[in-house]
Amino acid sequence: MSRPVDIISKAVEDKADSLQELSGKIWSHPELCYEEKFAHDTLTEFLEKNGFEVERKYKVDTAFKAVFRQGSGGANIGLICEYDALPDIGHACGHNLIAESGAAAGLGLKAMLQANTSVPGTVTVFGTPAEEGGGGKVVLVDAGAFEEVDICLMAHPGAMNMLAPGMLSTNHGSAVFTGRAAHAAAAPWAGVNALDAAVNAYTSLSMLRQQLHPDWRVHAIITEGGTKPNIIPERTTMKFYVRCPTDKEVGVLKEKVTAVMKAAALSTGCDIEIKYQAEDRAAYYSNLLTNRPLIERYCTHWLSFGPANPALEDDRFVASSDIGNVSYVVPAFQPAFSVGSYVHVHTRQFTGAANKPEAHTATRCVSKAMAAVGWDVLTDGDFRKRVKESFKQQVASMCV
Ligand SMILES: [Zn+2]
Ligand SMILES: [Zn+2]
């Protein structure tokens, strides 16, 4: 009998051309948050052709669920495709490769099940839109989309390989300062300067930074700063992100930032309207709880599939993602993998790198490793237990 490694490898390599084509189509047709109609249609068609039962527009217009089931019972392995792009610079976050990896891992795991007909189990490939700020997975989590799966796996392309890149909890905010317009030369004393409020807020945030924990982040921009120098600005707007290692800490930092904004309004005599993406909770994107047993197993498999570049960077905080919210409802991970050239995401150079042959090769290697981890969860009860135990402990530690 063939080894799992060989079956998975063959299933993915046999489809290498069509996977690359699938990814390339999405790459050539970048779509923003919640507008990913082309990617949704392209992926669902691909998965349907490859034997998955597809539910289009799953809870969200550009989300989907594709299922392959064998027998009754057994574990259900969730795999994630992302496919939204960035304004102006296209697939600079390489989500076309995340689409490819979710689909490829699905094919690998399906092949394993078909080669072992006595093993019951389910493979569920999720299409999750709007990662770039739109919180597609947050909406899906709130709608109970991941309740049927036992684990949920995805991987993200980047400049380097990292097993458990830290994803910070985050909440985005905006502020509108309203003052009163006046002629800046004839009667400046009659005005209430909303730009002073915004500048004050920006400067005070910079001062606040010295008092913050090293892993806490706050970054702001002034999005409207007035219209003409000879008019005292009556309206200015700001956008800012608050990020910390946990939701709870975001709650604390959010209060400090709100106080800074309000103080800036008060000191300049302006009114302020301040809003957060998630008013009802501390963070909108939660921090990522990387499941240790799952990621350790992933590492072993990934190395066994022979990645072109096997060097691993130490884990550190790199960004925020809505996979964090998924990791609070099921055991999950999101390792980063190198696309073959040392370029960072959200740059035009990365957009170019995200459709090179070496990026697709790296993606297939990662996909095989995810399929192999899924197979272990399907067939090894002790491992599954350890994964779930570790998950429970991690979630509990966040609630202390
Ligand atoms: Zn991104
Ligand atoms: Zn991304």
Overall description:
The protein has two domains: 4-167 and 287-398, Zn peptidases (Aminopeptidase, 3-Layer(aba) Sandwich), CATH 3.40.630; 169-276, Alpha-Beta Plaits, CATH 3.30.70.360. Helices cover 42% and strands 18% of the residues. The chain is built from twelve helices and 14 strands. The strands form four sheets. Strands 1-2-4-3-5-13 form a six-stranded mixed sheet. Strands 9-10-8-11 form a four-stranded antiparallel sheet, covered by helices on one side. Strands 6-14 form a two-stranded parallel ribbon. Strand 3, helix 4 (95-115) and strand 4 form a beta-alpha-beta unit. Helix 2 packs across helix 11 and helix 8 packs across helix 11. Residues 93, 95, 131, 156 line the site of one zinc ion (ZN).
Q: Which value, in Å, is the CA radius of gyration?
A: 23 Å
Largest sheet: 6 strands, mixed
Average pLDDT level: 97
Please, how many helices? 12
Order of helices and strands: HHHEEEHEHEEEEHEEHEHEHEEHHH
Fraction of residues in helices?
A: 40-55%
Q: Describe the strand arrangement of the main beta sheet, using strand numbers.
A: 1-2-4-3-5-13
Bound molecules: zinc ion
Number of domains: 2
Report strand %: 15-25%
Shape label: elongated
Structural class of the helix and strand makeup? alpha/beta
Looking at how many chains there are and whether they match, the oligomeric state comes to single chain
